[in-house]
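Reopening this one. Same input as before:
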Amino acid sequence: MKIILCPKENGNTRKICDAIATEDDCELVRITGNEILDLSDYESVIVGSGVYGGFPHKNLLMFIRNLKEEHAPKKVRVLLTWLGRGKSDMEAFKRIEKEFLLKGVSVSTNYKKVLGHSFGVFHIGKPNDKDIKSCIEWANEP
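Same output, byte for byte:
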């Protein structure tokens, strides 16, 4: 059983998460940070977020911080959409990893990053069909 957690109802990350959920027929949950979810029985947990100056979405961080250890999954995988600037993707990944490690959750270092469309002028047409296909393939890796 697979679940995908995404902090937004629209945008680059949500577009990819929707495609993965549809392709894999898995659950997609929008997180606001206050949910009480039991993820302990899921075989695969993917968390998605945009990158905002090296930080993941605030709702994702709040969700992880509020996650009870008995409800935590054994392992998660991370999907990031970003503008491709510097090492902001790695900074966001490290922040997510740190919060999960505090809960005793292992985080796959094989995170997926995809360029996203922003401000109407950066990376127009991203994420495109090729990007989405690549993300679906990544989501299905063991």
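So the earlier flakiness isn't reproducible anymore. For the record, Residues 40 and 94 are 22 Å apart (CA to CA).
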